[in-house]
Design brief:
There is one protein chain. The protein has one domain. It has helices at 2-7, 13-43, 52-56, 62-65, 71-103. The protein contains five helices and no strands. The longest helix is centred in the C-terminal third of the chain and has 33 residues, at 71-103. The protein is elongated, with a radius of gyration of 22 Å. It has 104 residues and is mostly helical. It starts with a helix and ends with a helix.
Length: 104
């Protein structure tokens, strides 16, 4: 059934009307996630130890074990989730664009 839809030269009206709306919603969500990433990165503090823990491998402090519960840890999680969401939504947007352009 899906292959018949792709092989058809004319598309149903509801698809023709809904794809631009879906793409606009995706663009708005991508823009909001981008702003969220920018704000979260600007609110992060710099690392005072200069990355020495990455070189020495020392991570036995109480702070390092509970780093995800701090403000910086929550901001890092927010950044990772937002960037992942931007990546996935951008792929979905361009796949929809490719599908719509294949009918034209």
């Amino acid at each position: 059934m899906f292959t018949n839809l792709l092989n058809a030269k004319s598309i149903p009206v509801w698809i023709d009307n809904s794809f631009p709306v879906i793409q606009n919603v995706l663009l708005c969500v991508i823009a909001l996630c981008s702003l969220l990433v920018i704000i979260a990165v600007l609110r992060c503090q710099s690392n005072p130890d200069g990355g020495t823990n990455a070189i020495t491998g020392i991570s036995d402090s109480y702070y390092m074990h509970n780093k995800g519960n701090t403000k910086e840890g929550r901001l890092q999680k927010l950044i990772i989730i937002s960037v992942s969401l931007i990546f996935v939504l951008t792929i979905i947007y361009f796949v929809l664009e490719l599908i719509m352009n294949s009918f034209v």
